[in-house]
Design a protein that fits this description.
Layout (H helix, E strand, L loop, with lengths): L3 H10 L8 E5 L4 H12 L3 E8 L5 H17 L3 E5 L2 H8 L3 H20 L3 E3 L4 H14 L12 E2 L2 E2 L7 H11 L15 H16 L3 H30 L1 E3 L2 E5 H6 L3 H8 L7 H9 L8 E3 L3 E6 L2 E6 L8 E3 L5 E4 L2 E8 L11 E5 L7 E4 L6 E2 L8 E2 H7 L4 H4 L4 E3 L5 E4 L3 E2 L12 E8 L1
Parallel strand pairs: 1-2, 1-4, 2-3, 4-6
Antiparallel strand pairs: 5-6, 7-8, 8-11, 9-10, 10-11, 12-16, 13-14, 14-22, 15-22, 16-19, 17-18, 19-20, 20-21
Helix pairs in contact: 4-5, 6-8, 11-12
Length: 444
């Protein structure tokens, strides 16, 4: 007899869906998804069947497509099917066949939900699939999130067969005499998941014949531990992460107090995609001098003066913008630089984003660029030149910000202005100045 009562109880307990929902059942034609379709029908849920033909096994794929079409007719439900050129998609996007099939089917499922009004997508994963996923995650390296197995609900995706093992499903299929088709690729061990299914799990069952029940019990503990950890991390994020414009600051003293340090720091920085190796290197740098920089594809992390600073990594771009004597403004990165020519010796005061320069000293074209190693200038108020690297240190300019500052360069190569910080002593307005050029920076 179909386990309809247990099926409905599992759905209700885990809040997968309610009787009024319209459900899209992903059915391959294998025994797992066939049983799911029969259970959905027997329980009286409103559902339709979706089948993907990935065109990978020729006549076998076509046979599965026709089988699922017949199954939908037998059950009296809507049937949706589509063909994918999976190999071509994988080649174009330079991904594996398995990843290509995954992307294609979920994109299509999402499209069906929008166009046909389905509210949830029902998948036929069971307890053994969850075990295989955990073992696969362990071989690849995982945090605690990789140990909770396959969740009953993940957004729009629901998995109502997670209360059954593969052996349970086979027994029900045989007892009920339900027809299904077998995917020949399931027996191949060239795929990592199949190796675990056919070679690793049988050995584990020799050690523990009730391995599925043991794993299911462990999964409950892992899921509870993950909830507790996430709650702790949310509290720490509110307490420790300080947001400054487009930067995130974390005190080194606060990081040193974390316990367990490595786990909590990894979780705090997880959304910024820093790896375990970076976390280890960061921890080793906590008691050393400032200046360590860590980068990934999206973010830069700097250890600087008692804190960690995380900022969005900017895309490299042409950092040299020329200015002619007829320009009234130019745009440099996230700044607009305005130029105002004035016959009166006007001096801008108390505004770090604007300076007055003696116009007669300017040699056009001027240039705006980022700082470079070896740059030096004569800071306002000083008679000796100073390296920009030393100036940044003295001004306590964070390492991640120094590359963003616009540096105004004269046509003779001199640095006129460190945008937003300091004018050069050599270009200041004095008693002999007859004409002034005012440079004003505006952050866009």
């Amino acid at each position: 007899m179909l386990p309809v009562k247990q099926f409905v109880e599992f759905i209700e307990k885990n809040k997968l869906f309610v009787p009024g929902n319209k459900i899209l059942a992903a059915v391959s034609g294998g025994m797992d998804s066939v049983l799911m379709a029969h259970l959905l029908k027997a329980a009286g849920y409103n559902f339709g069947i979706a089948h993907c033909n990935f065109m990978l096994r020729g006549p076998e794929s076509l046979a599965e497509q026709e089988f699922t079409r017949s199954l939908a007719q037998q059950l009296g439900v809507s049937f949706h099917t589509t063909n994918f050129d999976t190999k071509d998609y994988a080649a174009v996007h330079k991904i594996s066949i398995q990843m290509a099939a995954r992307e294609l089917r979920y994109e299509w499922f999402g499209h069906l939900c929008k166009t046909e009004g389905y509210q949830v997508i029902s998948l036929a994963h069971h307890q053994n699939d969850s075990i295989e996923t955990i073992l696969l995650n362990l071989t690849r390296g995982t945090g605690i999130a990789g140990l909770h197995g396959i969740l009953p609900v993940n957004g729009q995706l629901v998995r109502p067969l997670l209360f059954l093992t593969r052996a349970d499903i086979l027994t029900i299929i045989e007892q009920e005499g339900l027809a299904f088709v077998e995917d020949s690729s399931n027996s191949s061990v060239k795929y990592a998941r199949n190796k675990i299914r056919h070679q690793v799990v049988p050995l584990l069952k020799e050690l523990n014949p009730s391995i599925e029940a043991t794993f299911e019990n462990n999964l409950k503990h892992f899921r509870d531990m993950e909830i507790l950890l996430n709650q702790k991390v949310e509290e720490l994020q509110k307490e420790l992460l300080v947001f400054h414009d487009d930067e995130v600051h974390i005190s080194l003293d606060d990081i040193k107090k974390l316990n367990p340090q490595r786990l909590l720091l990894f979780k705090l920085l997880q959304s910024y995609n820093f790896t375990d190796t970076v976390i280890d290197d960061l921890i080793s740098a906590l008691d050393k001098h400032s200046g360590r920089v860590f980068e990934n594809a999206d973010f830069t992390l700097v250890v600087d003066r008692g804190k960690v600073i995380i900022s969005k990594r900017t895309t490299p771009q042409d950092d040299r913008i020329e200015i002619s004597d007829t320009d009234s403004h130019i745009t440099y990165r996230d700044y607009k630089l305005n130029l105002l020519h004035d016959d009166s010796p006007l001096i801008v005061k108390d505004n770090p984003m604007a300076v007055s320069v003696d116009s007669e000293l300017l040699v056009y074209p001027l240039t705006v660029r980022a700082w470079e190693q070896g740059d030096h200038f004569y800071p306002l108020g000083m008679k000796t030149r100073k390296k920009l690297s030393d100036f940044f240190i003295n001004e306590k300019i964070p390492l991640n910000r120094k590359n963003e500052l616009p540096i105004l360069i004269n046509g003779n190569g001199d640095i006129i202005w460190i945008g937003g910080y300091r004018l050069s002593e050599r270009y200041k307005v004095n008693d002999n100045t007859k004409k002034v050029t005012i440079f004003e920076l505006i952050k866009l």
